[in-house]
Write a sequence for this structure.
């Protein structure tokens, strides 16, 4: 009996850890850089949570995702991909740009509180 009870406890504990890990996964936003422009150039994220950004560079030049508001600088090579985390953010708007093409590569993150 004890071994069946111990096995059941172990299965339940593993399930709880797995469920907790899945719940802790941050929201992921995919950004594409093409023609020295970000797509999407504006997106909304939940306030108070970490957000994973996956940036794909389709250009022939290296670019740097740069944001003083978000306190992030992240290089992405030509035809490369980079991922990084921002937040948790307070509600508000946060600007970002491509450091090497700031005239065209611009964007904004909008953090909003979840409806209750």
């Amino acid at each position: 009996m004890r071994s069946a009870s111990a096995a059941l406890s172990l299965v339940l504990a593993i399930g709880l850890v797995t469920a907790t890990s899945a719940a802790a996964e941050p929201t992921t936003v995919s950004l594409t850089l093409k023609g020295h422009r970000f797509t999407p150039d504006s997106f909304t994220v939940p306030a108070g949570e970490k957000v994973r950004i996956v940036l794909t560079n389709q250009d022939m030049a290296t670019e740097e995702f740069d944001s003083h508001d978000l306190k992030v600088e992240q290089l992405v090579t030509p035809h490369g991909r980079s991922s990084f985390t921002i937040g948790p953010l307070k509600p508000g708007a946060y600007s970002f740009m491509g450091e090497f093409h700031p005239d065209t590569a611009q964007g904004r993150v909008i953090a909003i509180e979840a409806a209750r």
